[in-house]
Amino acid sequence: KKALQRALEQIDTASGFMLQQGQRPATVGLALSASPLALLSWIGEKFLAWTDGDFPLDKILESVTLYWMTDTFPRTMYHNRGLANAHDKPKIARTSVVCKMTALQLPYVEKPCGYSLFAKEIFPVPKTWAELSCRLVSFNQHAQGGHFAAMENPRALLADVEAYIKKAWTADDSAK
């Protein structure tokens, strides 16, 4: 219940970035690619707001430096175009979809899926909702970690990935 309240608060007060990235990703991407300070401010504030506790400055700078040196951050924004109505052509994020989070009509994923839910994730999805969208074979919930779980709680995430692989991977006995 607390996680859903946090998600609603995030949508209400801090979801503008999704619309910007989903409606004008090339514009935002170009602006962020033009200045390392702009990139640091865009990414850095998310590390500060979306993590479970104080995130080390050196880790923020490492991440931003990697994006800056490879000029890859603009491409990370295009997935937000998926926040569109199913029939939209071209896909463009819509406020109505972001606010309701009900218009998304995603296909059911038949392949085995795994889901790790970290306590401070900004848009937590309840396990029951995840089960409606995919064949969930592995689920783990953690008391620590947020949106950047791979950096905040890497051991827990690695253990989850390993557990998922053991459950989802099927060996081809005929290949032996």
UniProtKB/TrEMBL annotation:
Domain of life assignment: Eukaryota
Gene Ontology terms: biological process: epoxide metabolic process
Keyword list, A-Z: Hydrolase
Membrane spanning stretches: none
GO MF, one example: epoxide hydrolase activity
Family to which the UniProt record says this protein belongs: Belongs to the peptidase S33 family.
Name the UniProt record assigns to this protein: Epoxide hydrolase N-terminal domain-containing protein
